[in-house]
C-alpha cells in the first residue's frame, strides 16, 4: 500500500510534458506612442471633406464628358482611395456603361490604354466582360501587335488589366507576358514620373495591392502630375489623413485592450500579436464605415492566435480534446479539467464573444454573429484534427484564408454592399 501511495505521489510530481515553442518576442512592445484624437481638428477636416465631396460628385456627372474621360476620372477616384464616398454614383455609371456598350465593335475607336482601363474597372466591379475588347490589338498570328511596344501607357494599362484575368482568359495570360517583357526593357528610357509608375507596377500590381497603401502611393504620384485635379487631390489627402487619425486611435485602443487582458502573465505560452492583428484588419477592412468590424476582427484574430498556440505550443492531446469538445458545444463545460492557462484563454474568448453578441443584438444583426461563431468553431475543430493528423476534408483553407470568415466581419460592420 505504501509503495502504491509513493508511486502515485511520484507521478503527481511529474510535470506535464508540453510542446512549447520559442516564438519571437513582440517587436512592437513600447514603440507605438499613445494617441489622443483631436476632435476639433477631426471635425475641421470632416467639414472640408464634405465640401470637396460635393464638388467632386458634380465632376462625376456625365455632362460634356466622353466615356474615356469618365472612366479615367473614376479610376483616379478609386486609386486615390476616396471611392467609398461615391460608391453609388460609380456603380450606377458603370452599370449604365455596361448596359449600353455590349458590342465590342464599339471599342475599335479606343486606344489600348482606354480599352484596358475600361476592361479592368468592369472586372473589378464584378461585371462579366469578355476579353473580346482586346481583339483589335491582336495580329493575324494571334499575338499582340508589335506596334504596341512603344505605347508605354497602353502597355502599363494592359499590364494592370491582365491581373484581373480568370481561368481560360488566355489572351490575358499572353498580355501579362507581353507587357512585362516590354515594360521591363523600356523602363530606363521613360520620363521620371512614368518610370516610377512602371517600376512600381512591375513589383506590385494594383489589383494585388493593399488598398490603403496603394492610395498612399498613388497620392504622391498624382501630386507630381501637372494636370492633376487639385480638388480631387486635396480630398484624397484629407481623407487619407482623417482615416489615419482613426486608425491610430483604434490601434491604441487595441493595445490598451490587450494589456487589460494581462496576456503576458495569463497566457505566457502565447504570442502577443495585437498590433499585427490590427494591421491585418486595416488591410482588409480599411473603409471608415468598417470601424466596428476592424476592431472585432483584430481582437478575434489576437484571441484565436492564443487558441492556435494552445494547439501548437502548449496543450496536451487530452486537454485539446476537452477544449475542442467545449468549442463544438460553444460553452464552458469541461473547462475545469483544463490547465489554468488554457482555461483562461478559452473563457476570455467566450466572454469576448458574449460581448460581441450583445452589441449585435442591439443592432439586430445576430445573423452575423451566428456566421462568425460557425467559422470560429470550424477553425478550432480543424486545428485539433490537424494536430492529431486526422484527415481533413475540404479544410485546407482555415479561417485565415476563408472568405466567409471575412464576410462575417463585413456583416458585423452593418454594411450590406
Automatic annotation (TrEMBL):
Ranges of residues in domain Terpene synthase N-terminal: 40-202
InterPro entries, per database record: Isoprenoid_synthase_dom_sf, Terpene_cyclase_plant_C1, Terpene_synth_N, Terpene_synth_N_sf, Terpene_synthase-like, Terpene_synthase_metal-bd, Terpenoid_cyclase/PrenylTrfase
Domain called Terpene synthase metal-binding: residue spans: 261-381
Transmembrane feature ranges: none
GO molecular function: magnesium ion binding; terpene synthase activity
Gene Ontology BP term (one): diterpenoid biosynthetic process
Biochemical pathway: Secondary metabolite biosynthesis; terpenoid biosynthesis
Keywords of this entry: Lyase, Magnesium, Metal-binding
Record protein name field: Sesquiterpene synthase 31-like
Species in which this protein is naturally found: Coffea arabica
Domain of life: Eukaryota
Amino acid at each position: 500500500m505504501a509503495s502504491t501511495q509513493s508511486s502515485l505521489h511520484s507521478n503527481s510530481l511529474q510535470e506535464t510534458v508540453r510542446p512549447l515553442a520559442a516564438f519571437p518576442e513582440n517587436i512592437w512592445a513600447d514603440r507605438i506612442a499613445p494617441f489622443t484624437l483631436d476632435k476639433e481638428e477631426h471635425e475641421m477636416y470632416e467639414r472640408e471633406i464634405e465640401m470637396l465631396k460635393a464638388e467632386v460628385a458634380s465632376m462625376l456627372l456625365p455632362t460634356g464628358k466622353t466615356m474615356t474621360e469618365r472612366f479615367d476620372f473614376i479610376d483616379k477616384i478609386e486609386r486615390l482611395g476616396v471611392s467609398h464616398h461615391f460608391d453609388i454614383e460609380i456603380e450606377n455609371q458603370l452599370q449604365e456603361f455596361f448596359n449600353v456598350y455590349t458590342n465590342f465593335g464599339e471599342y475599335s475607336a479606343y486606344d489600348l490604354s482606354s480599352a484596358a482601363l475600361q476592361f479592368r474597372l468592369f472586372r473589378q466591379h464584378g461585371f462579366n466582360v469578355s476579353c473580346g475588347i482586346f481583339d483589335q490589338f491582336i495580329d493575324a498570328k494571334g499575338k499582340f501587335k508589335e506596334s504596341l511596344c512603344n505605347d508605354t501607357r497602353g502597355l502599363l494599362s494592359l499590364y494592370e488589366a491582365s491581373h484581373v484575368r480568370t481561368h481560360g482568359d488566355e489572351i490575358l495570360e499572353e498580355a501579362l507576358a507581353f507587357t512585362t517583357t516590354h515594360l521591363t526593357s523600356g523602363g530606363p528610357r521613360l520620363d521620371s514620373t512614368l518610370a516610377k509608375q512602371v517600376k512600381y507596377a512591375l513589383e506590385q500590381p494594383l489589383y494585388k495591392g493593399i488598398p490603403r497603401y496603394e492610395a498612399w502611393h498613388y497620392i504622391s504620384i498624382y501630386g507630381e502630375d501637372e494636370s492633376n485635379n487639385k480638388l480631387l487631390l486635396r480630398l484624397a489627402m484629407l481623407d487619407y489623413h482623417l482615416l489615419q487619425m482613426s486608425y491610430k486611435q483604434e490601434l491604441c485602443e487595441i493595445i490598451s485592450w490587450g494589456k487589460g487582458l494581462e496576456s503576458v502573465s495569463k497566457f505566457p505560452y502565447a504570442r502577443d500579436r495585437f498590433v499585427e492583428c490590427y494591421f491585418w484588419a486595416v488591410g482588409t477592412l480599411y473603409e471608415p464605415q468598417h470601424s466596428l468590424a476592424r476592431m472585432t476582427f483584430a481582437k478575434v484574430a489576437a484571441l484565436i492566435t492564443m487558441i492556435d498556440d494552445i494547439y501548437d505550443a502548449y496543450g496536451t492531446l487530452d486537454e485539446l480534446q476537452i477544449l475542442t469538445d467545449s468549442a463544438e458545444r460553444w460553452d464552458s463545460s469541461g473547462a475545469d479539467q483544463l490547465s489554468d492557462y488554457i482555461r483562461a484563454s478559452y473563457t476570455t474568448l467566450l466572454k469576448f464573444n458574449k460581448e460581441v453578441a450583445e452589441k449585435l443584438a442591439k443592432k439586430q444583426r445576430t445573423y452575423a454573429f451566428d456566421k462568425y461563431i460557425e467559422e470560429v468553431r470550424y477553425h478550432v475543430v480543424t486545428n485539433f484534427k490537424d494536430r492529431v493528423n486526422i484527415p481533413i476534408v475540404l479544410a485546407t483553407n482555415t479561417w485565415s484564408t476563408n472568405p466567409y470568415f471575412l464576410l462575417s466581419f463585413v456583416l458585423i460592420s452593418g454594411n450590406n454592399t
